[in-house]
Amino acid sequence: MEQIIVEGLEVFGYHGVYEQEKEEGQIFVVNCWIDTSFAGAIHSDDLSNTVDYGNVCLFIKKYFAENAHDLLEKVADELATSIMYAFPGVQKLVLEIKKPHAPIPMEFANVGVKVEKAWHQVALAIGSNMGDKEKYLTDAMEELISDPNVRNVIVSDYIETEPYGYVDQDKFLNGAATIETLLSPEDLLAFLHRIEEKADRKREIHWGPRTLDLDILLYDDSCIHTKDLIVPHIDMCNRMFVLEPLMQIAPGLVHPVRRRTIYDLYYMLKEKENA
Question: pTM to 2 decimals?
Fold first, then answer.
């Protein structure tokens, strides 16, 4: 991944806790490091095929001119997110904002904050076995697509499968989706739970019937083990109803623990089931 660098960009704004800062404003210094791909620009030598750092600078200047917040932490987070939304070619951004004239009653070189944002690659399992199953799945995907913190949503075909674990229930409609998201694993999980709640999801029987089930299978190459979330999904390698639709849309994704692609895991499970 290549990088575009902007350093020492001076902008004027009214961010600060104290009334003098709010009324008189001050100079801020912005640095940012943008991870992106140069491939399109190298082959075409065309500005439209890269992230235009001139427009990034103007965007930052405009943000400072039109917004005012008490805390620099708020400024940095909001500005970084806005840049990610506005410039699709930005894969990852490190943004640093310095406040050289902060009202501190002593000598100092500088004070500031730094934030990092990135588009994370995520694989999801989706399923339903109650009511209008296809509508539940389709509505959930539309919720994802409409959220600004999610992009590049790719959804597999839906397949009908027998229930897993608790078998005294209707057949499932299962699928998979890959997305890119700015959300942390915890925030993404909370978002998925809100979508499930809109579909009146109940958690009464383990592996029991449900209107909607949204599971995080993979999040970049992260390994997460908390009370609420385990990634990679603990049983995904044993579930054909997970691997088959994921194989359709992302066969090259790598399981960070098994160090095998979805393609490999699919055919390994297929061979095991046919043995």
Answer: 0.90
Per-residue pLDDT of the chain in tens (275 residues, 90 and over written 9): 899 999 999 999 999 999 999 999 999 999 999 999 999 999 999 999 999 999 999 999 999 999 999 999 999 999 999 999 999 999 999 999 999 999 999 999 999 999 999 999 999 999 998 889 999 999 999 999 999 999 999 999 999 987 765 555 678 899 999 999 999 999 999 999 999 999 876 655 555 577 899 999 999 999 999 999 999 999 999 999 999 999 999 999 999 999 999 999 999 999 988 87
Fold classification of 120-274 is Alpha-Beta Plaits (3.30.70)
Where do the DSSP E strands lie in the chain? 2-13, 26-36, 92-98, 112-118, 120-128, 150-155, 159-161, 172-181, 213-219, 224-225, 230-231
Please identify every residue annotated as catalytic: 99
Contact 186, 229 (CB under 8 A): yes
CATH code assigned to 2-118: 3.30.1130.10
